[in-house]
Design a protein that fits this description.
heterodimer, A: alpha/beta, D-Maltodextrin-Binding Protein, domain 2, 2 domains, six-stranded mixed beta sheet, 38% helix, 18% strand, B: alpha/beta, Arc Repressor Mutant, subunit A, five-stranded mixed beta sheet, 7 helices, 5 strands, elongated
Amino acid sequence: MSTARLNCGYVPLVDSAPLIVAQELNFAADEGLSLNLLRQPSWAALRDLLALGHLDAAHMLAPMPIAMSLGLSGPMARIDALMVLSVNGTVIGVSNAMAEAMRRKGWPGGFASPQDTAGPMLSALDRPLRVGVPFPYSMHRLLFEYWIGHTGLADLSKMHIITTPPPLMADAVASDEIDVFCVGEPWGSVAVGNDVGELILPGAAIWAHAPEKVLAARHAWVEENPSVVGALMRAIARAAAWLDTPKNRPLAIEILARSAHLDLPHAALDHALMGRFATQFGAAPVDVPGFLRFHDRAANFPWRSQAAWIGAEIARLAGINRDHAIAMAQRAMRPDCYRQHLGPIGVDMPGASAKIEGALTHPMAVASTRGEMILGPDAFFDGEIFDFGGAE
Amino acid sequence: MNVQLVGRGWNALPLSRTTSCVTEDMKIAVIEPDPDRARDIIDALMEGGWTDVVVLGDVSGLARKLAALDPDLVLIDLANPSRDALEQVSVASEAQSRPVAMFVDRSDDEMTQAAVAAGLSAYVVGELQPDRIKPVLQTAIARFQMMSQMRNELEAAKQALADRKTVDRAKGMIMRAKGVGEEEAYALLRKTAMSQNRKVIEVAQALLTASDLLT
């Protein structure tokens, strides 16, 4: 079998693991693929290279293919999200000074309660909050704004959203450029380790099943190369299943720490992959079950309803027509590819490609091809439910 | 006027305004933390007749700085991790004049590809005419190509030096362990590399790694 070489872009974060494991553990080779993993210095660079055809596929922030397809970010290009690479895995933190100010306003501390945290956070300073996010179109920003917007306690337009590359986030906190940071691991733990910040919430506390990264590719390329697309999706699905097998996690940490792809030390990977966090410098770590999912709970399935939620939030952010944004978002998500390429290898498929987002406060067995699917929880912190139609 | 560029020494040439271009009334901001690279880009733009060029080395408070400078065009290395910060400025609704990423409309894909291949990205602020942007970009693309070639050459030279040191260390180790001469030690490395279908440097590295582990 001849080997097809694919240029795959990624940003060196813990959640790029499915691509790295697919290559390093030969899941790609088993499918006749060689993944040329190309590390990117910024999301903008990754986006431009994908749009212009220098990359075949990419590890991308879930809102990016949608923003790109709407012409809101970078060179206009129709980009598809073939599958979800990871669910959750982000943290929200504040500077040490901010944490102290929040305690004075009655914040009880902890790492689980958006409702108890919002008030003290929003009243802590008598000037507009400066919030660091990794990219304008990121789940970090959408979740933060959803949280603050839905508490009804603050005017979002009065906040300063400041894009900061994740590796520089802890420095930006230390040099007092930002008060709050929303970031993927390991960069939240780095701020804690440097004793400059404190973690206040995992992203999952705002939406319990938020698609974080997706596998993105140009729509035209996807249509022209069905067999390569299928091979890539199968390799990544197997890597994701391997990663979500608990006994493999310590080995995953070894592989990721040793490979040259991430350049992150062992300890930096440990928090996210083992789901244990010290939220404060020197504090005992707390367990956050399901902090970062790669496969379980149908994590890889690209739900059209997830895309619709993202589209609706982008419409609010960019001030564009909501129905149009939702329709384009749903078009960018490709559950059809997922069913076509992963169905034949026995991946469990849900009955519908959309669900009511936010309905599950507990895990629940649902109808699926193999009858083994458990979904949820996928609740929002405020109990809101989103029905965009198309759910069974 | 024909400006001759001789090897790398041309950087030392005094800035001349000898090109046929008239001085353009356009403010260009270059975001580049490396002073040498920044100077290279400025030189190229100056020679092309664009004299109003500002360098931002540090991107903290980028939105504020850009608002104060009010440039018409922003040039930034594709590899600069601060590009995402520029993206934020370009979508911020409160910004009065937003920089918009070049090539958004894909009107000139050939130029876009050339820029990306050279490692350049550009943002346009306001209503600049395409025919005024194009020559700036062509100049910047040419300079970025030259810089990336020099960077590649430098890295290749550094790598070659590092490889030689590694091979020398491995040779020394074999000489000591087996009591052989330098030529024989190298021959042994080469023979092993050939029989395993690997490069000499890979075998040398493996030897050093193994020895580090065992001592």
